[in-house]
Design the sequence.
């Protein structure tokens, strides 16, 4: 039933046109790609979550990249951020391979599900508060469709806030005052779910050394130990 529920959510996500600014941007990126992607057929629609329907572990990013997920149709697929994330998930045993370049490349997640706080590529990688609000029900419903969920990893402060709001809307009692984001943050949530934090896997962080493979590996190892 979880797989059917997630598939239904994905179909609704893909058809969504609720945010005119994001619709215009995602389609403009597809119409005017950089030279390295000219001739490719872009997805240019909302990018649904994907992974194991029996997942106990949910990873929440910010939004698809204009020429990553917006191009390939799968979140964190076809860009440097995804290369960094999937390599770490592979080392931790949550992914079948270390790199993902397309929806058909054979990548499978094991006990994990990956989603984003906003499902369309935004200008300047920054959805507006209203856009986050409109997109949140998709994340709320995905949380509800993962009955074995025990750990959530938020990539960056905006994803941390969005995850707390989605967990609240999904019926989980979240801590008060709201726990602050930091790399390595850990916040138990009612219902036997623990929210974890990591700096986002963007090149802005990974190329500068703010987030290293070892730093993300430590967070994933802790999650793996807690999941047993």
Sequence:
């Amino acid at each position: 039933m979880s797989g059917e529920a997630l598939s239904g959510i994905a179909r609704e996500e893909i058809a969504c046109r609720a945010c005119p600014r994001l619709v215009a941007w995602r389609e403009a990126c597809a119409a005017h790609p950089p030279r390295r992607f000219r001739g490719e057929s872009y997805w240019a629609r909302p990018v649904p979550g994907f992974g194991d329907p029996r997942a106990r572990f949910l990873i929440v990013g910010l939004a698809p990249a204009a020429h990553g997920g917006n191009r390939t149709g799968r979140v964190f697929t076809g860009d440097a951020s995804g290369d960094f994330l999937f390599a770490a998930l592979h080392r931790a045993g949550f992914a079948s391979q270390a790199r993902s370049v397309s929806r058909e490349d054979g990548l499978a997640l094991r006990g994990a599900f990956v989603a984003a706080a906003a499902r369309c590529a935004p200008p300047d990688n920054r959805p507006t508060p209203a856009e986050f609000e409109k997109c949140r029900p998709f994340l709320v419903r995905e949380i509800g469709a993962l009955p074995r969920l025990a750990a959530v990893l938020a990539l960056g402060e905006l994803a941390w806030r969005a995850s707390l709001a989605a967990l609240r809307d999904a019926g989980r009692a979240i801590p008060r005052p709201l726990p602050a984001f930091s790399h390595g943050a850990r916040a138990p949530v009612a219902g036997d779910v623990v929210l974890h934090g990591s700096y986002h896997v963007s090149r802005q962080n990974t190329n500068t050394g703010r987030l290293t493979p070892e730093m993300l590996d430590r967070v994933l190892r802790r999650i793996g130990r807690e999941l047993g």
